[in-house]
């Protein structure tokens, strides 16, 4: 967030492995090209800090996936 790493992890630390997730999901539905499986968040969420840290308008969040790239999202106030 804003150039500071808040969370850094990989799928090796997930509670459930990717093949297990896919098997469980496809037992009840068909995954189509482009479907996204949300797996949750690694340690380091803002509510766990003291004091708590939350996103504010003007913040920039970056998410990077190796071999894919980086997605940058500005935080805006929609009110």
From TrEMBL:
<dbReference type="Pfam" id="PF01557">
    <property type="entry name" value="FAA_hydrolase"/>
</dbReference>
<dbReference type="GO" id="GO:0046872">
    <property type="term" value="F:metal ion binding"/>
</dbReference>
<keyword id="KW-0479">Metal-binding</keyword>
<dbReference type="InterPro" id="IPR036663">
    <property type="entry name" value="Fumarylacetoacetase_C_sf"/>
</dbReference>
<protein>
    <recommendedName>
        <fullName>Fumarylacetoacetase-like C-terminal domain-containing protein</fullName>
    </recommendedName>
</protein>
<dbReference type="GO" id="GO:0018773">
    <property type="term" value="F:acetylpyruvate hydrolase activity"/>
</dbReference>
<feature type="domain" description="Fumarylacetoacetase-like C-terminal">
    <location>
        <begin position="2"/>
        <end position="76"/>
    </location>
</feature>
<dbReference type="InterPro" id="IPR011234">
    <property type="entry name" value="Fumarylacetoacetase-like_C"/>
</dbReference>
């Amino acid at each position: 967030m804003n150039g500071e790493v808040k969370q850094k992890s990989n799928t090796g630390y997930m509670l459930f492995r990717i093949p297990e997730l896919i098997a469980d999901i496809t037992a009840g539905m068909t995954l189509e090209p482009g479907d996204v499986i949300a797996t949750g968040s690694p340690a380091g969420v803002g509510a766990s800090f003291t004091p708590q840290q939350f996103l504010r308008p003007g913040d920039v969040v970056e998410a990077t996936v190796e071999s894919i790239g980086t997605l940058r999202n500005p935080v805006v106030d929609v009110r």
